[in-house]
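Worked example 4.2. Below are the chains of a multi-component assembly; read each line carefully before continuing.
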Amino acid sequence: MPLDEDKDTLKKLFVKVNGQKIERYVNPRMLMIDFLRHELKLTGTHAGCEHGVCGACTILFNNVSARSCLMFAIQAQGADIRTVEGLSPADGQLSDLQQALSRHHALQCGFCTPGMLVTLIEHLNDYAQPTEASIREAISGHLCRCTGYNNIINAALEVSLARQNEKTS
Amino acid sequence: MKPSQFRYYDPKSIDEALDVLATHDNVRPLAGGQSLIPMMNFRLIAPEHVLDLSFIPELAQINIDKKITIGSMVRQRDLEFHHQIKKLCPIIIEALQHVGHRQTRNRGTIGGSLCHLDPASELPAIMMLLDAELHSRRKNQAPIIRPMSEFAEGVFTHAMQPDELLTQIECEMWPREHGYSWLEFARRHGDFAIAGVGVMLTIDPAQTINRCAIVISGLAAVPQRLHMAENKCLGQIANEDMVPSLIDEIDDIDVIDNPSAPSHYRQHIAKTLLKRAMMIAYERAQNLAHKNKK
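Applying the procedure described above to all two chains together yields the following C-alpha coordinates:
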Protein backbone atom coordinates (compact mmCIF):
# COMPACT_ATOMS: atom_id res chain seq x y z
CA MET A 1 0.00 0.00 0.00
CA PRO A 2 1.44 3.41 -0.86
CA LEU A 3 2.34 5.55 2.11
CA ASP A 4 0.15 8.47 3.04
CA GLU A 5 2.97 10.90 3.33
CA ASP A 6 1.46 13.17 5.97
CA LYS A 7 -0.17 10.56 8.15
CA ASP A 8 2.42 7.81 8.01
CA THR A 9 5.76 9.44 7.84
CA LEU A 10 5.74 13.00 9.19
CA LYS A 11 8.33 13.49 11.94
CA LYS A 12 9.04 16.35 14.27
CA LEU A 13 12.45 17.95 13.87
CA PHE A 14 14.23 20.09 16.46
CA VAL A 15 17.23 21.86 15.00
CA LYS A 16 19.24 25.04 15.46
CA VAL A 17 19.81 27.05 12.30
CA ASN A 18 22.08 30.10 12.47
CA GLY A 19 21.60 30.25 16.21
CA GLN A 20 17.81 30.09 16.06
CA LYS A 21 15.90 27.13 17.51
CA ILE A 22 13.49 25.63 15.04
CA GLU A 23 10.69 23.08 15.46
CA ARG A 24 9.03 21.71 12.33
CA TYR A 25 7.22 18.67 11.07
CA VAL A 26 9.08 17.30 8.06
CA ASN A 27 8.72 14.43 5.67
CA PRO A 28 11.73 12.18 6.15
CA ARG A 29 12.49 12.23 2.44
CA MET A 30 12.93 16.00 2.45
CA LEU A 31 16.58 16.80 1.79
CA MET A 32 18.27 19.33 4.04
CA ILE A 33 18.85 21.69 1.10
CA ASP A 34 15.10 21.75 0.37
CA PHE A 35 14.29 22.20 4.04
CA LEU A 36 16.56 25.25 4.20
CA ARG A 37 15.38 26.79 0.95
CA HIS A 38 11.68 25.91 0.83
CA GLU A 39 10.67 25.58 4.46
CA LEU A 40 12.91 28.15 6.12
CA LYS A 41 13.21 30.36 3.01
CA LEU A 42 16.97 30.53 3.54
CA THR A 43 17.80 30.70 -0.15
CA GLY A 44 21.44 31.74 0.32
CA THR A 45 22.54 28.11 0.15
CA HIS A 46 22.31 26.99 -3.45
CA ALA A 47 21.06 23.73 -4.91
CA GLY A 48 23.30 22.68 -7.80
CA CYS A 49 23.82 19.10 -8.86
CA GLU A 50 21.85 17.56 -5.96
CA HIS A 51 24.06 14.49 -5.86
CA GLY A 52 27.08 15.65 -3.94
CA VAL A 53 29.44 16.67 -6.72
CA CYS A 54 29.30 20.46 -7.11
CA GLY A 55 29.53 21.64 -3.50
CA ALA A 56 27.12 24.58 -3.92
CA CYS A 57 24.81 23.31 -1.17
CA THR A 58 27.57 22.85 1.43
CA ILE A 59 26.62 23.99 4.97
CA LEU A 60 28.22 23.79 8.40
CA PHE A 61 26.72 20.85 10.27
CA ASN A 62 27.90 20.81 13.89
CA ASN A 63 30.84 22.98 12.79
CA VAL A 64 32.04 20.75 9.95
CA SER A 65 31.22 21.17 6.28
CA ALA A 66 28.67 18.82 4.77
CA ARG A 67 26.60 18.52 1.62
CA SER A 68 23.03 19.48 2.42
CA CYS A 69 21.84 17.54 -0.65
CA LEU A 70 23.28 14.32 0.79
CA MET A 71 21.41 14.55 4.05
CA PHE A 72 17.77 14.31 5.04
CA ALA A 73 16.51 17.21 7.14
CA ILE A 74 15.31 14.77 9.80
CA GLN A 75 18.90 13.58 10.29
CA ALA A 76 19.72 16.98 11.76
CA GLN A 77 17.75 16.15 14.91
CA GLY A 78 19.42 18.20 17.66
CA ALA A 79 22.13 19.51 15.35
CA ASP A 80 23.57 23.00 14.99
CA ILE A 81 23.53 24.28 11.42
CA ARG A 82 25.08 27.37 9.93
CA THR A 83 24.44 28.66 6.45
CA VAL A 84 25.73 31.70 4.57
CA GLU A 85 22.96 33.76 6.20
CA GLY A 86 24.59 33.18 9.59
CA LEU A 87 28.17 34.09 8.79
CA SER A 88 28.22 37.86 9.14
CA PRO A 89 28.65 39.46 12.57
CA ALA A 90 25.56 41.69 12.15
CA ASP A 91 23.07 42.75 9.52
CA GLY A 92 24.77 44.87 6.88
CA GLN A 93 28.26 43.74 7.91
CA LEU A 94 30.54 41.12 6.43
CA SER A 95 32.97 38.75 8.16
CA ASP A 96 36.70 39.10 7.56
CA LEU A 97 36.58 36.18 5.11
CA GLN A 98 33.64 37.64 3.19
CA GLN A 99 35.41 41.00 2.96
CA ALA A 100 38.57 39.31 1.70
CA LEU A 101 36.64 37.44 -1.00
CA SER A 102 35.13 40.70 -2.13
CA ARG A 103 38.52 42.50 -2.15
CA HIS A 104 40.21 39.74 -4.13
CA HIS A 105 37.47 39.51 -6.74
CA ALA A 106 36.91 35.94 -5.59
CA LEU A 107 33.33 35.80 -6.83
CA GLN A 108 31.53 36.79 -9.98
CA CYS A 109 28.19 35.06 -10.30
CA GLY A 110 28.34 33.96 -6.66
CA PHE A 111 26.68 30.61 -7.16
CA CYS A 112 29.47 28.59 -5.55
CA THR A 113 30.30 31.23 -2.92
CA PRO A 114 27.98 30.12 -0.05
CA GLY A 115 29.52 26.65 -0.21
CA MET A 116 33.08 27.89 -0.66
CA LEU A 117 32.68 30.14 2.39
CA VAL A 118 31.68 27.38 4.80
CA THR A 119 34.45 25.07 3.62
CA LEU A 120 37.00 27.87 4.07
CA ILE A 121 35.67 28.64 7.56
CA GLU A 122 36.14 24.99 8.48
CA HIS A 123 39.58 24.80 6.91
CA LEU A 124 40.82 27.90 8.75
CA ASN A 125 39.54 26.32 11.98
CA ASP A 126 41.12 22.92 11.30
CA TYR A 127 44.57 24.21 10.36
CA ALA A 128 46.46 26.91 12.23
CA GLN A 129 48.73 27.47 9.21
CA PRO A 130 46.92 26.53 6.03
CA THR A 131 48.95 26.54 2.84
CA GLU A 132 48.04 27.25 -0.74
CA ALA A 133 48.06 23.49 -1.35
CA SER A 134 45.88 22.67 1.66
CA ILE A 135 43.30 25.30 0.70
CA ARG A 136 43.30 24.07 -2.88
CA GLU A 137 42.67 20.55 -1.61
CA ALA A 138 39.87 21.68 0.71
CA ILE A 139 37.99 23.56 -2.02
CA SER A 140 38.52 20.76 -4.56
CA GLY A 141 35.09 19.61 -3.39
CA HIS A 142 33.55 22.75 -4.92
CA LEU A 143 33.02 23.61 -8.56
CA CYS A 144 33.44 27.23 -9.59
CA ARG A 145 32.70 27.80 -13.27
CA CYS A 146 33.37 31.50 -13.71
CA THR A 147 35.77 33.15 -11.26
CA GLY A 148 38.49 30.52 -11.10
CA TYR A 149 39.97 29.29 -7.88
CA ASN A 150 43.11 31.39 -7.49
CA ASN A 151 41.45 34.51 -6.14
CA ILE A 152 39.51 32.45 -3.63
CA ILE A 153 42.75 30.88 -2.41
CA ASN A 154 44.45 34.27 -2.18
CA ALA A 155 41.59 35.63 -0.11
CA ALA A 156 41.70 32.70 2.30
CA LEU A 157 45.49 32.95 2.67
CA GLU A 158 45.23 36.66 3.45
CA VAL A 159 42.64 36.05 6.17
CA SER A 160 44.68 33.26 7.66
CA LEU A 161 47.82 35.43 7.81
CA ALA A 162 45.88 38.34 9.29
CA ARG A 163 44.47 36.07 12.00
CA GLN A 164 47.91 34.64 12.78
CA ASN A 165 49.35 38.13 13.08
CA GLU A 166 46.53 39.17 15.36
CA LYS A 167 47.29 36.24 17.65
CA THR A 168 51.02 36.98 17.87
CA SER A 169 50.72 40.75 18.28
CA MET B 1 15.78 14.55 -8.35
CA LYS B 2 14.00 13.72 -5.11
CA PRO B 3 13.97 10.42 -3.24
CA SER B 4 10.73 8.49 -3.15
CA GLN B 5 8.74 8.04 0.04
CA PHE B 6 9.95 5.88 2.87
CA ARG B 7 9.42 5.29 6.54
CA TYR B 8 12.23 6.55 8.73
CA TYR B 9 13.66 4.94 11.86
CA ASP B 10 16.26 6.46 14.18
CA PRO B 11 17.10 3.74 16.70
CA LYS B 12 19.27 4.63 19.70
CA SER B 13 20.80 1.17 20.16
CA ILE B 14 22.04 -1.77 18.09
CA ASP B 15 19.23 -3.98 19.43
CA GLU B 16 16.56 -1.52 18.32
CA ALA B 17 18.17 -1.39 14.87
CA LEU B 18 18.27 -5.18 14.62
CA ASP B 19 14.57 -5.25 15.52
CA VAL B 20 13.71 -3.01 12.58
CA LEU B 21 15.85 -5.13 10.24
CA ALA B 22 14.23 -8.35 11.44
CA THR B 23 10.65 -7.15 11.17
CA HIS B 24 10.60 -5.37 7.80
CA ASP B 25 11.47 -6.16 4.21
CA ASN B 26 13.23 -3.72 1.92
CA VAL B 27 15.04 -1.82 4.71
CA ARG B 28 18.16 0.18 3.90
CA PRO B 29 20.54 1.02 6.72
CA LEU B 30 21.64 4.64 6.27
CA ALA B 31 25.22 5.29 7.43
CA GLY B 32 26.86 8.49 6.18
CA GLY B 33 24.61 8.61 3.14
CA GLN B 34 27.33 9.90 0.80
CA SER B 35 26.66 7.11 -1.71
CA LEU B 36 23.19 5.96 -0.64
CA ILE B 37 21.50 9.36 -0.82
CA PRO B 38 22.74 10.19 -4.35
CA MET B 39 21.36 6.80 -5.43
CA MET B 40 18.06 7.64 -3.75
CA ASN B 41 18.04 11.14 -5.27
CA PHE B 42 18.37 9.55 -8.72
CA ARG B 43 15.82 6.89 -7.70
CA LEU B 44 18.25 4.16 -8.59
CA ILE B 45 16.97 2.65 -5.36
CA ALA B 46 13.74 3.28 -3.49
CA PRO B 47 13.77 1.53 -0.11
CA GLU B 48 10.47 1.37 1.77
CA HIS B 49 12.22 1.73 5.11
CA VAL B 50 15.31 3.75 5.94
CA LEU B 51 17.19 2.86 9.10
CA ASP B 52 19.34 5.80 10.17
CA LEU B 53 22.31 4.58 12.23
CA SER B 54 23.56 8.08 13.16
CA PHE B 55 22.06 8.03 16.62
CA ILE B 56 23.64 4.80 17.91
CA PRO B 57 26.68 5.81 19.98
CA GLU B 58 27.87 2.18 20.33
CA LEU B 59 28.61 2.12 16.61
CA ALA B 60 30.76 5.25 16.59
CA GLN B 61 33.64 4.19 18.86
CA ILE B 62 37.32 3.76 18.05
CA ASN B 63 39.21 1.46 20.44
CA ILE B 64 42.93 0.86 20.37
CA ASP B 65 44.22 -2.03 22.38
CA LYS B 66 46.13 -4.99 20.99
CA LYS B 67 44.00 -4.48 17.90
CA ILE B 68 42.41 -1.44 16.31
CA THR B 69 38.64 -1.68 16.57
CA ILE B 70 36.62 0.75 14.50
CA GLY B 71 32.86 1.07 14.88
CA SER B 72 30.97 0.87 11.62
CA MET B 73 29.57 4.39 12.10
CA VAL B 74 32.92 6.06 12.74
CA ARG B 75 33.07 8.99 10.35
CA GLN B 76 35.96 9.03 7.89
CA ARG B 77 36.92 12.41 9.31
CA ASP B 78 37.30 10.99 12.82
CA LEU B 79 39.79 8.39 11.64
CA GLU B 80 41.60 10.93 9.46
CA PHE B 81 42.27 13.22 12.44
CA HIS B 82 42.94 10.44 15.00
CA HIS B 83 46.40 10.97 16.53
CA GLN B 84 46.99 7.35 17.55
CA ILE B 85 45.92 5.95 14.19
CA LYS B 86 48.34 8.37 12.57
CA LYS B 87 51.19 6.78 14.53
CA LEU B 88 50.04 3.16 14.53
CA CYS B 89 48.51 2.70 11.11
CA PRO B 90 49.31 5.74 8.95
CA ILE B 91 48.33 4.03 5.69
CA ILE B 92 44.68 4.41 6.70
CA ILE B 93 45.16 8.15 6.83
CA GLU B 94 47.16 8.26 3.60
CA ALA B 95 44.36 6.39 1.81
CA LEU B 96 41.61 8.51 3.39
CA GLN B 97 43.07 11.63 1.78
CA HIS B 98 41.81 10.19 -1.50
CA VAL B 99 38.30 9.31 -0.29
CA GLY B 100 35.87 11.79 -1.85
CA HIS B 101 36.38 15.33 -0.56
CA ARG B 102 36.68 17.07 2.80
CA GLN B 103 32.91 17.65 2.84
CA THR B 104 31.98 14.02 2.13
CA ARG B 105 34.57 12.59 4.55
CA ASN B 106 32.95 14.65 7.30
CA ARG B 107 29.75 12.61 6.87
CA GLY B 108 30.92 9.40 5.21
CA THR B 109 31.56 6.43 7.47
CA ILE B 110 33.98 3.50 7.50
CA GLY B 111 31.22 0.89 7.62
CA GLY B 112 29.19 2.61 4.93
CA SER B 113 32.10 2.52 2.51
CA LEU B 114 32.83 -1.14 3.31
CA CYS B 115 29.20 -2.14 2.70
CA HIS B 116 28.89 -0.06 -0.47
CA LEU B 117 31.97 -1.84 -1.92
CA ASP B 118 32.68 0.31 -4.91
CA PRO B 119 35.48 -1.53 -6.77
CA ALA B 120 37.52 1.68 -6.93
CA SER B 121 37.14 2.72 -3.32
CA GLU B 122 40.02 2.91 -0.90
CA LEU B 123 38.68 1.61 2.42
CA PRO B 124 37.76 -1.93 1.28
CA ALA B 125 41.27 -2.25 -0.17
CA ILE B 126 42.87 -1.00 3.05
CA MET B 127 40.84 -3.47 5.12
CA MET B 128 41.85 -6.27 2.75
CA LEU B 129 45.47 -5.20 3.17
CA LEU B 130 45.16 -5.23 6.98
CA ASP B 131 43.39 -8.63 7.00
CA ALA B 132 40.55 -6.93 8.85
CA GLU B 133 37.76 -8.91 10.46
CA LEU B 134 34.24 -7.57 10.10
CA HIS B 135 31.79 -8.14 12.92
CA SER B 136 28.10 -8.12 12.24
CA ARG B 137 24.93 -9.02 14.09
CA ARG B 138 21.45 -10.41 13.49
CA LYS B 139 18.58 -10.33 15.92
CA ASN B 140 18.89 -12.95 18.70
CA GLN B 141 22.01 -14.48 17.18
CA ALA B 142 25.65 -14.64 18.10
CA PRO B 143 27.89 -12.07 16.39
CA ILE B 144 29.16 -13.12 12.98
CA ILE B 145 32.80 -12.53 12.06
CA ARG B 146 34.07 -12.55 8.47
CA PRO B 147 37.51 -11.71 7.10
CA MET B 148 37.37 -8.84 4.59
CA SER B 149 38.23 -11.29 1.80
CA GLU B 150 34.94 -13.14 2.46
CA PHE B 151 32.90 -10.04 3.28
CA ALA B 152 33.55 -8.54 -0.16
CA GLU B 153 31.69 -10.82 -2.56
CA GLY B 154 31.53 -8.76 -5.71
CA VAL B 155 30.86 -5.37 -7.28
CA PHE B 156 28.72 -3.44 -4.76
CA THR B 157 27.95 -6.78 -3.06
CA HIS B 158 28.75 -7.80 0.51
CA ALA B 159 28.19 -11.19 2.10
CA MET B 160 25.69 -10.10 4.76
CA GLN B 161 22.03 -11.13 4.93
CA PRO B 162 19.36 -8.42 4.54
CA ASP B 163 18.65 -8.41 8.29
CA GLU B 164 22.31 -8.28 9.26
CA LEU B 165 24.09 -5.15 10.52
CA LEU B 166 27.82 -4.42 10.34
CA THR B 167 28.86 -3.30 13.83
CA GLN B 168 32.66 -3.06 13.92
CA ILE B 169 35.88 -3.70 12.07
CA GLU B 170 38.91 -5.19 13.77
CA CYS B 171 42.39 -4.72 12.37
CA GLU B 172 45.55 -6.35 13.56
CA MET B 173 48.32 -3.94 14.49
CA TRP B 174 51.60 -4.06 12.54
CA PRO B 175 54.91 -3.40 14.33
CA ARG B 176 55.53 0.33 14.74
CA GLU B 177 58.54 0.24 12.37
CA HIS B 178 56.64 -0.81 9.27
CA GLY B 179 56.88 0.88 5.91
CA TYR B 180 53.71 1.70 4.00
CA SER B 181 52.41 3.44 0.92
CA TRP B 182 49.04 4.08 -0.64
CA LEU B 183 49.08 5.41 -4.20
CA GLU B 184 46.28 5.81 -6.69
CA PHE B 185 45.60 7.42 -10.00
CA ALA B 186 42.44 9.28 -10.90
CA ARG B 187 41.86 11.81 -13.66
CA ARG B 188 40.90 14.40 -11.04
CA HIS B 189 41.72 14.38 -7.34
CA GLY B 190 38.80 12.93 -5.38
CA ASP B 191 37.37 11.05 -8.35
CA PHE B 192 37.02 7.29 -8.34
CA ALA B 193 40.47 5.93 -9.06
CA ILE B 194 41.35 3.98 -12.18
CA ALA B 195 43.71 1.95 -10.02
CA GLY B 196 45.04 2.07 -6.47
CA VAL B 197 47.86 0.22 -4.74
CA GLY B 198 48.59 -0.31 -1.05
CA VAL B 199 51.84 -1.78 0.30
CA MET B 200 52.92 -2.53 3.87
CA LEU B 201 56.20 -4.18 4.80
CA THR B 202 58.76 -4.70 7.53
CA ILE B 203 62.50 -5.25 7.16
CA ASP B 204 65.07 -7.05 9.29
CA PRO B 205 68.50 -5.66 10.37
CA ALA B 206 70.03 -6.94 7.11
CA GLN B 207 67.56 -4.63 5.25
CA THR B 208 65.73 -7.55 3.67
CA ILE B 209 61.94 -7.70 3.66
CA ASN B 210 60.57 -10.15 6.23
CA ARG B 211 56.87 -9.37 5.92
CA CYS B 212 54.89 -7.84 3.08
CA ALA B 213 51.27 -7.19 2.10
CA ILE B 214 50.16 -5.80 -1.25
CA VAL B 215 46.65 -4.87 -2.41
CA ILE B 216 45.32 -3.57 -5.70
CA SER B 217 42.00 -1.75 -6.06
CA GLY B 218 40.04 -0.55 -9.07
CA LEU B 219 41.03 -3.48 -11.28
CA ALA B 220 38.79 -6.37 -10.28
CA ALA B 221 35.28 -6.53 -8.79
CA VAL B 222 36.79 -6.52 -5.30
CA PRO B 223 40.26 -5.49 -4.08
CA GLN B 224 42.92 -8.11 -4.80
CA ARG B 225 45.82 -9.18 -2.63
CA LEU B 226 48.93 -10.15 -4.59
CA HIS B 227 49.98 -13.20 -2.55
CA MET B 228 52.59 -14.43 -5.02
CA ALA B 229 54.30 -11.04 -5.15
CA GLU B 230 54.13 -10.78 -1.34
CA ASN B 231 55.99 -14.08 -1.04
CA LYS B 232 58.47 -13.12 -3.71
CA CYS B 233 59.52 -10.09 -1.65
CA LEU B 234 60.54 -12.10 1.39
CA GLY B 235 64.28 -12.17 1.99
CA GLN B 236 64.79 -9.52 -0.71
CA ILE B 237 65.97 -5.95 -0.80
CA ALA B 238 63.62 -3.63 -2.71
CA ASN B 239 65.52 -2.09 -5.60
CA GLU B 240 65.17 -1.44 -9.31
CA ASP B 241 66.04 -5.06 -10.14
CA MET B 242 63.71 -6.75 -7.69
CA VAL B 243 60.59 -4.54 -7.86
CA PRO B 244 59.76 -5.05 -11.57
CA SER B 245 59.60 -8.81 -10.94
CA LEU B 246 56.52 -8.26 -8.75
CA ILE B 247 54.23 -6.82 -11.37
CA ASP B 248 53.55 -9.98 -13.42
CA GLU B 249 50.83 -11.13 -11.04
CA ILE B 250 48.75 -8.11 -12.12
CA ASP B 251 48.33 -9.81 -15.52
CA ASP B 252 46.46 -12.65 -13.79
CA ILE B 253 43.72 -10.37 -12.41
CA ASP B 254 40.33 -10.46 -14.13
CA VAL B 255 40.16 -6.74 -14.87
CA ILE B 256 37.13 -4.46 -15.28
CA ASP B 257 36.93 -3.11 -18.81
CA ASN B 258 35.18 0.06 -19.94
CA PRO B 259 35.78 2.52 -22.77
CA SER B 260 37.13 5.31 -20.55
CA ALA B 261 39.59 2.98 -18.81
CA PRO B 262 40.16 -0.27 -20.72
CA SER B 263 41.56 -3.23 -18.83
CA HIS B 264 45.08 -3.04 -20.32
CA TYR B 265 45.27 0.61 -19.31
CA ARG B 266 44.16 -0.15 -15.74
CA GLN B 267 46.79 -2.89 -15.53
CA HIS B 268 49.47 -0.59 -16.89
CA ILE B 269 48.61 2.05 -14.27
CA ALA B 270 48.53 -0.54 -11.48
CA LYS B 271 51.98 -1.86 -12.42
CA THR B 272 53.49 1.61 -12.40
CA LEU B 273 51.87 2.41 -9.06
CA LEU B 274 53.02 -0.87 -7.54
CA LYS B 275 56.64 -0.21 -8.44
CA ARG B 276 56.46 3.27 -6.92
CA ALA B 277 54.54 2.19 -3.81
CA MET B 278 56.97 -0.63 -3.14
CA MET B 279 59.94 1.73 -3.18
CA ILE B 280 58.20 4.32 -0.99
CA ALA B 281 57.18 1.69 1.57
CA TYR B 282 60.68 0.22 1.62
CA GLU B 283 62.34 3.61 2.06
CA ARG B 284 59.96 4.51 4.88
CA ALA B 285 60.78 1.24 6.65
CA GLN B 286 64.50 1.96 6.23
CA ASN B 287 64.14 5.49 7.57
CA LEU B 288 62.30 4.26 10.64
CA ALA B 289 64.93 1.58 11.29
CA HIS B 290 67.64 4.21 10.87
CA LYS B 291 65.92 6.58 13.31
CA ASN B 292 65.57 3.84 15.92
CA LYS B 293 69.29 3.01 15.71
CA LYS B 294 70.15 6.58 16.61
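Take a moment to check your reading of the output against the notes. The radius of gyration of chain A is 17 Å. DSSP finds six helices and five strands in chain A.
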